[in-house]
Structures are given as C-alpha cells and as structure tokens.
Write a structure and sequence with these properties.
single chain; about 170 residues; alpha+beta; 4-stranded antiparallel β-sheet; about 10% strand; rod-shaped; 4 strands; 3 helices
C-alpha cells in the first residue's frame, strides 16, 4: 500500500508513513489481522521456530475470499497485497474502511459518533452551584447587617447571652 502524500510504500504493521509521517488509512479488521499474523510468521521463521515449508503452509492459510468472490493474500517477497478473480492476478491495495461497507451496511467513518458534551455540562453545573452559594452568602450577610437574623430554637437572648439585635 502506498502513501497518498509522498508515494512511499507503507511498511506492514505500521500506522504511518516512514518518509512523510502521514497516517496510514485504516483497513478492514480482516486485513489488519492478516498483516499481524504475517509479521508473526515471518518473525518465527527468522528465529528458526518455523521451517520454510511450514512457513509457506501458514502463509497459504492467510488468504481469504471477499464478498465479490475475489481472493486476497500477501505476497511474502514483495510484502504487498494481491487480489485475484480466478482469471487475473493483480497487485492491489485493500480499500480503507471509509470506503468499505461494514456488516450493518453503514460505513464506519461516514457515520461518526457525536462528541459528548459531558465536560461542558459539568462545568456549567459547577458554575451554577458556585453562583447559588455566592448568592446565599450575600443574602445571609445582608440579613445579618439588617439585624433580622433568623432566631434559632434554644438560643433566646437572656442573661449571659448577647442579643444580635442592633
């Protein structure tokens, strides 16, 4: 798969272009899974955990058939995707997810979820709570300054208890 910005080939398993840094298009999950398994099989072969014949057998198991009955596979020599309809064998890049239709028939990137407004709501509620507290403090202070404080039961003015009345 080639970068749409600079034309360099994307490296399998990496999420951005090594030359220009552009993010690689998101592929359908089956392509991502096959690339990861391909890289794993290559590593096992290099470490000597997988013989050449077993490696080739594992790679053959990574091919799959799409909804058009075309067959997809990774070519190990070129590290590139190929597609065949039974008559023609073509080097072909898989379509990014925004072009592919999901099982529900709706493209994932064409129908983004709305951003949640939770932080804005939380800030608004906190500001309202702060204003209510400030208003309560101001009104309470005004009542005290006017000498019209609300009497509390059991705290009547008498000998030894100062009166709040001015």
């Amino acid at each position: 798969m080639q970068c749409g910005n600079c034309g360099a080939d994307y490296v399998l398993g990496e999420t951005s272009c090594r030359r220009c840094g552009r993010t690689r298009p998101i592929l359908a999950p089956i392509f991502i899974e096959i690339e990861a398994r391909f890289i794993d099989h290559e590593g096992r072969r290099r470490r000597g955990e997988l013989a050449e014949a077993a490696y080739r057998h594992e790679l053959n198991g990574l091919a799959f058939q799409d909804e058009t009955l075309g067959r997809w596979w990774l070519n190990p020599e070129e590290r590139a995707w190929y597609w065949s309809d039974g008559r023609h064998r073509l080097r072909r890049d898989p379509l990014p997810v925004r072009h592919a239709v999901s099982e529900a028939g709706i493209s994932r990137l064409d129908n983004p979820q709305k951003k949640r407004k939770f932080p804005c709501l939380l800030v608004s509620l906190a500001a309202m709570g702060f204003l209510v507290c400030v208003d309560g403090a101001i009104l309470g202070g005004l009542y005290l300054l006017q000498g019209t404080a609300i009497p509390l039961p059991g705290l009547e003015a008498g000998p030894g208890v100062p009166s709040l009345a001015v």
